[in-house]
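User: tokens in, sequence out, please.
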């Protein structure tokens, strides 16, 4: 990124002839098609001025309605609280409905996204001595699902514009012990699955899609979670389909999905034989009831988040201060679990991200950073390399190389520069709400010379 403080004149130079009339009338379409009044004279709210938004009430999340309360009550009264009490209970019904929604033959509920991922790791026979390549820019549940099975999570660095795994970095990290790739569709948008699947095919690796944030997104005509061998979802409260804590696995391979069932049922198959290693990861009937009720409006909310995200992105087109998350070619839609952007301080008079966020918050729009530290920098790394089982299963040379290659500078950069807007809530608002978000950003931008006073 060129270090440059663009002047308003330079921006105006980028807009169409049709916008000149608007400029003359005082409504200045400076960036792409952003239209806003000049705000330099309006004092920043954090410095005592009037905020852009005085009292915004965003749509509440998690979504709750009377039907959902009824279904929970019905489940409570039924006494069927555990999935193994009924083959037609809420969990079994949710699994059928979720598979239908995703377009897969099978779906399986679990108690969390982490449990879903670990179930797949176990069902694919991945364990001590094996390596799984994944991203450090994720929830700890991703890493936990690998180390719970005492396999080695190998960190590959990111594409800093999409915040997703860089396929070139993935390929560089393959060793003779690599068994799988665990790509994460971060923020709910697709990662570069075309390249990742090609690498997996070339090296004969399994692919476990971490679609924990990515319900209903579509890439090259395929629903996220259906591209790899299996796809895993989280239904934790903040997710775009949620039940407090919950998870799910989707897939088309019957044998593998049956193995997943057995693993998440403490190693006991549907036939009642105790066959393998597995923790007890079952989804319960209350979670099933909430999820069934959530599914009702999930597609509409998904469409609304996509519409609002596209609107925000169109408004930020050509604005150099914030760059929305890059979406790969082939992205037809994303879950927009989060709406994220890279903050370019050089276009905000070198104000820190924190100064920008504080000023924006005072204007009535709350944004924040996301993951403070890439997971390659967290203490679990030292913990596992010092464990006897890792020292037995991985040679001293491999563990040394593992530590030496842990640096992910692009991930560090993303952690430092990314800003996010919660999508369940704000992105379920109206177009007017989206305009308010843009207005607040532009007011802060127009007053960037004062940000160092914060
Ligand atoms: C990308 C990603 N992977 C895995 C998980 C783990 O899911 P859960 O919290 O349901 O265990 C999450 C949840 O935040 C996530 O965002």
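Assistant: Sequence out:
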């Amino acid at each position: 990124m060129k270090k440059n403080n663009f002047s308003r004149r330079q921006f105006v130079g980028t807009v169409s002839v049709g916008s000149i009339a608007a400029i003359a009338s005082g409504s200045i379409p400076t960036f792409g098609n952003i239209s806003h009044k000049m705000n330099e004279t309006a004092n920043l709210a954090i410095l005592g001025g009037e905020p852009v938004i005085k009292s915004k009430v965003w749509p509440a999340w998690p979504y709750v309605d009377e039907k959902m309360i009824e279904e929970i009550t019905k489940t409570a009264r039924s006494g069927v609280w555990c999935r193994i009490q009924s083959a037609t209970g809420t969990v079994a019904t949710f699994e059928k409905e979720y598979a239908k929604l995703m377009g897969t033959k099978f779906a399986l509920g679990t108690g969390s996204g982490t449990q879903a991922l670990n179930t797949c790791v176990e069902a694919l026979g991945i364990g001590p001595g094996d390596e799984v390549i994944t991203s450090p820019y994720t929830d700890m549940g991703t890493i936990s699902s690998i180390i719970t099975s005492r396999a080695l999570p190998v960190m590959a660095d990111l594409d800093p514009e999409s915040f997703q795994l860089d396929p070139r970095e993935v390929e560089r990290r393959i060793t003779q012990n690599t068994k799988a790739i665990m790509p994460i569709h971060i923020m709910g948008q697709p990662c570069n699955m075309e390249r990742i699947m090609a690498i997996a095919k070339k090296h004969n690796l399994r692919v476990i899609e971490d679609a924990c944030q990515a319900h209903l997104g579509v890439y090259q005509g395929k629903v996220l979670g259906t591209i790899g061998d299996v796809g895993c979802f989280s239904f934790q409260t903040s997710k775009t389909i949620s039940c407090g804590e919950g998870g799910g696995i989707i897939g088309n391979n019957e044998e593998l999905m049956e193995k997943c069932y057995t693993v998440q049922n403490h190693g006991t198959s549907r036939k009642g034989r105790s066959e393998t290693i597995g923790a007890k990861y079952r989804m319960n009937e209350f979670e099933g009831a909430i999820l069934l009720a959530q599914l009702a409006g999930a597609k509409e909310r998904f469409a609304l988040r996509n519409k609002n995200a596209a609107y925000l992105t169109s408004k930020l087109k050509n604005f150099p201060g914030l760059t929305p998350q890059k979406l790969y070619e082939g992205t037809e839609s994303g879950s927009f679990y989060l709406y994220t952007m890279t903050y370019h301080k050089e276009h905000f008079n070198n104000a820190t991200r924190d100064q920008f966020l504080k000023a924006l918050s005072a204007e009535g729009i709350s944004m924040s950073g996301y993951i403070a530290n890439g997971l390659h920098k967290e203490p679990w790394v030292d913990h596992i390399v010092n464990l006897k089982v890792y020292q037995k299963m991985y040679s001293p040379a491999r563990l040394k190389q593992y530590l030496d290659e842990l640096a992910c500078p692009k991930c560090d950069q993303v952690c430092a520069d990314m800003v996010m807007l919660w999508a369940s809530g704000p992105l379920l608002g109206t177009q007017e709400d989206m305009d308010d978000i843009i207005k607040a950003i532009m007011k802060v931008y127009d007053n960037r010379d004062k940000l160092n006073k914060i």
